[in-house]
TrEMBL record:
Function: Catalyzes the transfer of the alpha-amino group from S-adenosyl-L-methionine (SAM) to 7-keto-8-aminopelargonic acid (KAPA) to form 7,8-diaminopelargonic acid (DAPA). It is the only aminotransferase known to utilize SAM as an amino donor.
Gene: bioA
Top-level EC class as recorded in UniProt: transferase
Keywords for the protein's UniProt record, in alphabetical order: Aminotransferase, Biotin biosynthesis, Cytoplasm, Pyridoxal phosphate, S-adenosyl-L-methionine, Transferase
Residues of the signal peptide: none
Protein name per UniProt: Adenosylmethionine-8-amino-7-oxononanoate aminotransferase
Organism: Solimonas marina
Oligomeric form and interacting partners: Homodimer.
C-alpha cells in the first residue's frame, strides 16, 4: 500500500480539519495530502519511507517526540489494568495522582482540577465556572467577558466567541457571545525604537479602561500568556500579566490564563504565567502570577492522547459546595472526562520533566535556533524574527518598513510549506508567519536541517 492508495481513500470519506478540501482534490491541487505510516522522535514517515521533521510538534502537542518509550510503556501498562470509567461517582489512581502533581506544579493557590478532553472544552469550563461562581455568590449582573484582539481560544462556540476577529471566527459571528475585545499587547506593530516592555505597558491602558467601564458586568478576562499562538505567534512582554493580575483583583474580575499552547515548558518556563515580574520589581520576590483559572491541554500527554484540565482556586470551588437543593453544583461533564489512559500519559510526561532537566537543555536549543536563523533574518521581506523559549516565528511582509503584509491570497506561507514538505520538513504556516515549535528532543543537527530548509524555502517564497 503506497501513499496514493491511502490518499485516495482518505479523500473519498475524510473531511480534514481546518482545510479547504479543494486544495487537495480540486483540478489543480495546491496542497499535497501526506499519509503517515509511523513516527519516531521528531520524525514522521510516510508509506514510501520518506521522512518529515515535525517542526510544529503536530499542532503543538508533541513535546517529547513521537512514541517516547516512557509514555508508550505507561500507556501499555495502564491498558492492562483499567481502560476507562466514568468520573462522576467514581475515581481512580491515575486521576488522583495527576491532580496532586498538577496542583504542586501550578502557580500557588490553584488547588482544584476539572477535566475535559480538548482545549476548547477546557476554555468552556473556565467560562461557565466563572459565570456560575458570580451567580452562586449573588452577582447576577456579571454575564460578559473581556478578551484580547488577535487571540484564539478554540473552536466550540463559547471559546470561538472569545477569539479575536479572524477567519476562524467571523463566519459564525451571528451565533456568538459578544465579549469586549481589547487591543492586544502583541509587540509586532510597535514603533521603531520602542521596547517590548514600553509597548506592552502602553497597550495595557486599553485593558485598564475596559475594566473601569465594564467591571460590573464582566465575569473574567481571558488571555493567552506571552504568545498569541494561532494569531501568528505574536508575542508580548510578561509585564502585561503582572498588571492584569493586579487590575483584575482591583476590579473584582476573574483572570483566565489559556495555557493550552504555551503550558508545559514551551515558553522556557513550565507555564507562561511563571514569567510575570513581581509587582514593583521587587528583586527578592518570586516572579509569577496565579490566575483564577488555568486551562491546559495540548502538551499535557506528550501529544499521545487527548486530555485537558482547568485548574482553579479552592475559594471558587467553595462557592459551588452547598446543599443539593440549593442548585449550586457545576453540572458539566464530558463522556471521556478524566480518562485513565490519558492521565497515565500525562503522568509519564510530567516524569520526563522531572527526570530530564528538559527546561535547561531547551535553553541551549532555543539559543541554537536563534543563531541558526542569522542568515534568514537578513532575507528580503523578513519583517521580524521573534522568539520566546521553544517558539521561533518568522513574519514575512510585503514591505518590511511599513509592515504592510503580503495579500493573503498570494499564500506565501503555503509556498514555504510546500517547499518544506519536498525537503522533508513539516512547517505548517499561519498565514504569512512561518514558525518553529519543535519537540524538545530535537537534536542540534536537526535544528540545523530545519533552519536550512526554512531559509531556502523563505528565500524562494518571497521572490516574485
Ligand atoms: C489549540 C488551542 C485551543 C483549543 O484547543 P483544542 O484542543 O484544539 O480544542 C485553545 N486555546 C489555545 C491558546 C490553543 O492554542
Amino acid at each position: 500500500m503506497n501513499n496514493d492508495h491511502w490518499k485516495t481513500r482518505s479523500l473519498a470519506h475524510v473531511w480534514h480539519p481546518c482545510t479547504q478540501m479543494r486544495d487537495h482534490d480540486g483540478e489543480a491541487p495546491t496542497l499535497p495530502m501526506i499519509p503517515v505510516k509511523r513516527a519516531d522522535g521528531v520524525w514522521l514517515e510516510d508509506f514510501e519511507g520518506k521522512r518529515y521533521l515535525d517542526a510544529v510538534s503536530s499542532w503543538w502537542t508533541n513535546i517529547f517526540g513521537h512514541r517516547h518509550p516512557a509514555i508508550v510503556e505507561a500507556l501499555k501498562a495502564q491498558l492492562d489494568e483499567l481502560d476507562h470509567v466514568m468520573l462522576a461517582g467514581f475515581t481512580h489512581a491515575p486521576i488522583v495522582e495527576l491532580s496532586e502533581r498538577l496542583v504542586r506544579l501550578a502557580p500557588p493557590g490553584l488547588n482544584r482540577c476539572f477535566y475535559a478532553d480538548n482545549g476548547s472544552s477546557a476554555v468552556e469550563v473556565a467560562l461557565k465556572m466563572s459565570f456560575h461562581y458570580w451567580r452562586n455568590t449573588g452577582q447576577t449582573k456579571k454575564t460578559r467577558f473581556i478578551a484580547l484582539e488577535n487571540s484564539y481560544h478554540g473552536e466550540t462556540l463559547g471559546a470561538l466567541a472569545m477569539g479575536g476577529p479572524s477567519m476562524y471566527r467571523d463566519t459564525y459571528a451571528p451565533l456568538l457571545l459578544e465579549p469586549i475585545h481589547v487591543p492586544s499587547p502583541d509587540c509586532y506593530p510597535r514603533g521603531a525604537g520602542e521596547s517590548w516592555e514600553d509597548y506592552t505597558r502602553r497597550q495595557f491602558w486599553h485593558m485598564e479602561r475596559a475594566l473601569e467601564q465594564h467591571a460590573d458586568e464582566v465575569c473574567a478576562v481571558i488571555v493567552e500568556p506571552l504568545i498569541q499562538c494561532a494569531g501568528g505567534m505574536r508575542m508580548y512582554h510578561p509585564l502585561y500579566l503582572t498588571l492584569l493580575r493586579e487590575a483584575c483583583d482591583r476590579h473584582g474580575v476573574h483572570l483566565i490564563a489559556d495555557e493550552i499552547a504555551v503550558g508545559f515548558g514551551r515558553t522556557g518556563r513550565l507555564f507562561g504565567c511563571d514569567w510575570a515580574p513581581p509587582p514593583g520589581f521587587d528583586e527578592d520576590a518570586q516572579p509569577g502570577i496565579t490566575p483564577d483559572f488555568m486551562c491546559l491541554s495540548k502538551g499535557i500527554t506528550g501529544g499521545t492522547i487527548p486530555l485537558a484540565v482547568t485548574l482553579t482556586r479552592e475559594s471558587i470551588y467553595e462557592a459551588f459546595w452547598a446543599e443539593y437543593r440549593e442548585g449550586k453544583a457545576f453540572l458539566h461533564s464530558h463522556s471521556y472526562t478524566g480518562n485513565p489512559l490519558a492521565c497515565r500519559a500525562a503522568l509519564a510526561t510530567l516524569d520526563l520533566f522531572e527526570d530530564t532537566r528538559v527546561l535547561a537543555t531547551n535553553r541551549a536549543l532555543s539559543q541554537l535556533m536563534w543563531a541558526q536563523t542569522a542568515e534568514l533574518r537578513q532575507l528580503p521581506h523578513v519583517a521580524e524574527v521573534r522568539q520566546q523559549g521553544m517558539v521561533l516565528a518568522i513574519e514575512l511582509a510585503k514591505n518590511i518598513r511599513t509592515k504592510e503584509p503580503f495579500p493573503s491570497e498570494e499564500r506565501r506561507g503555503v509556498r514555504v510549506y510546500n517547499y518544506g514538505l519536498e525537503h522533508g520538513v513539516l512547517l505548517r504556516p499561519l498565514g504569512n508567519v512561518i514558525y518553529f515549535m519543535p519537540p524538545y528532543v530535537i537534536t542540534p543537527r536537526e535544528v540545523e536541517t530545519l533552519c536550512k530548509v526554512a531559509t531556502e524555502g523563505i528565500r524562494r517564497a518571497v521572490r516574485d
